[in-house]
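Quick one:
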Amino acid sequence: MQAAFLPDRGVVKVSGDGARNFLNGLVTADVTEIKPGLGRFGALLTPQGKIIVDFLITEAPAGHGDGFLFDCPRALAQTLADKLAFYKLRAKVKVENLSDGFGVMAAWDGELAVKPDLTFADPRDPALGWRILAPEELKQKVADLIGADLVDSDAYEVHRIALGVPRGGLDFAYGDAFPHETNMDRLNGIDFDKGCYVGQEVVSRMQHRGTARTRTVKVLLDGPRPETGVSILAGDKVVGTMGSAAGTAGLALIRTDRAADALAAGLSLTAGGLAIRVADPKSLQSAERQTVA
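Output:
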């Protein structure tokens, strides 16, 4: 089993008597289902339905002061805290950015010998393993406790990319991407049965009308890795943007209909002049149109 401290992740805490209902009316996840030891994947959206910040969220047990803990991009931790504080109005909640003294570890490829406090399974994909919230100075102690080899965060990136799980800021731009474009609907990041939240109308419309035409897909590399952010071409037409890559795999934000048409016509895809292949061509197929029950 491997474990890595993720320096790009931060922690925001929301506590108070009204925290659960307050958060449930804002984010894409169903916060009513969250409890200590159980996490959910979600996002805070703009009213237009685009991702401000995505995160994993769990509930702190009483011994850690109760409240909800957000495992989020560290660069956006203060943005998340500020946005939540903006929305709280008269809600009885307290919002804190704990990132200076608190961080996130990931553990994968095995079972934990012991589950430390503030541990939960990554809800996006079982193969991603576990998340453990702890200070960076305790990373070796935590790794020893759970029975894992402590490795560099780059090893986790290789694992994440191999599983086809996108990372904001590399595989899509915050403030510019809809949840469906980053596969949040396929990674358990949107609860379509819960009540309203910010941006819910747009997300629901995309789900039921099947209007998502851009998706994050896994690609395979036969040689050097293209740079993140370069355009993906089918012939001379732009069909997407290259995201992160490691080893022989990468992620790409692709206009699926255009890429599917290009492949059907026998055209190859390139990024920065380098050949890439879609790992699963079926991922370019649009989901069947869904209707409201």
